[in-house]
Amino acid sequence: MSSNTEELTSNGKTMSSCINKSATTTVTSELESGNNKSGEPATVTPWEVSGKVDYAKLIEQFGSRAISQELVARFEALTGQQAHVFLRRGIFFSHRDLKELLDKYEKGEEFYLYTGRGPSSGALHMGHLVPFIFTQYLQSAFKVPCVIQLTDDEKFLFAKPRKGGPLPLSEYMKFGRENARDIVAIGFDPERTFIFADTSYIQHLYPNVLQIQRLTTYNQAKGIFGFTDSDNIGKHGFPAVQAAPAFSSSFPQIFGIDSNVRCLIPCAIDQDPYFRMTRDVASKMGRHKPALLHSKFFPALQGEGTKMSASVQESAIFLDDTDKKIKTKINKYAFSGGRATVEEHRELGGDCDIDVAYKYLTFFLDDDEELERIRSEYSSGNMLTGELKKILITILQKMVREHREKKEAVTDEVLDQFFAIRKLKL
Ligand code: TYM
């Protein structure tokens, strides 16, 4: 199914009507991700990512920490394997309390992983894959349990007005199940992974949701999320629902009712506001603050700073795209850092900093030496844009094809196993 009802920005994030003009200003001023070099403000919120993001500045403004080479080396030492390509290349670039979590892990203290998806459409795009691929890697490297939240409630409450009226809640619930098929296909361990949709698991989250709501004032929520008086009241209460899974007692069947197991949350940095609130409340609840690992954004085909719409299929690669569609989209729409003519290109070389095909390779071409060879050939003018795109097309087609095959094996029965409320292997 590829009912892409959401509208995406250049960074593949949903633009939501929940932020009206004045709220956007509030959010932008509070969560401003730093002006880019040309001075335009970039916006990073859970509902909107636009403009060219200055990630170093974002770390300063959000108050997180850069992932150092030393931390990457520590990952390698602890897991006994080369660090994931997303860590090696700085795609996961920022963290909160990761050092502390690893210190405790070294001393034998367990942790669990928590991540999620807001099912606003039936198909995931390549950007959504980033945190899930990384979470799956962490699960297999550390052999830890993982919980995955599908916020069908969030997408219902925050949906922007659309022609034909709002989608019924049941559609978001269906999208959630469809998205779960894609998530399972990434390779999560069935013995260690629990997937839940808020609408069906809420009773188990509710005790923690209530604690969080009681400890968070309306002013704090407004400050963090930019809510206004005209937003529906469901939006105001929702952040507590995304916060609750960061506390292990939300999963009594896995960790026990009074448990306080440490939690690590991999996500793109747009989700950080939810977890700043969570961390604040954790201290008041006498619980461990969740640790976080933040990724950069996988850019839209048209490049950073452009806006793309999912109703315009050509603007992103979706996991249900055919080989032919992938080829057409990359060839026609991937913003190129190549020069106007072959002669000029040979003389000046391509610009890898703005070239979308090259950017995509930095995410999905594992081989460091091959990536370096491509970078050097392209920027020296030896490699033309068409050749660069051809390499990317082959890689993406293979990835999406393999994903499709794995997804076909995710039957309803397999899916039900992941959704079953049960004990996990610890
Ligand atoms: P959602 O559905 O917007 O996105 C799902 C996950 O994908 C990340 N993401 C991206 N990463 C890289 N490049 C992109 N272009 C890109 N677009 C999206 C998001 O950061 C997210 O990690 N409210 C959440 C669902 C959620 C959640 C969580 C996410 C519930 N609990 C815990 C992370 C951790 C949402 O709507 O995600």
What integer value in Å does the Rg equal?
A: 21 Å
The major sheet is characterized as: 7 strands, mixed
In oligomeric terms, what are we looking at?
single chain
Helical percent range?
40-55%
Structural class: alpha/beta
Small ligands present: tryptophanyl-5'AMP
Strand content: 5-15%
Shape: globular
Q: How would you write the strand order of the largest sheet?
A: 3-4-9-8-5-6-7
- pLDDT averaged over residues: 89
Give me the count of strands.
9
Number of discrete helical segments: 20
Low-confidence region ranges: 1-12, 14-38
Topology order in helix (H) and strand (E) letters: HEEHEHHEHEHEHHEHHHHHEHEHHHHHH
Quote the distance from N terminus to C terminus: 34 Å
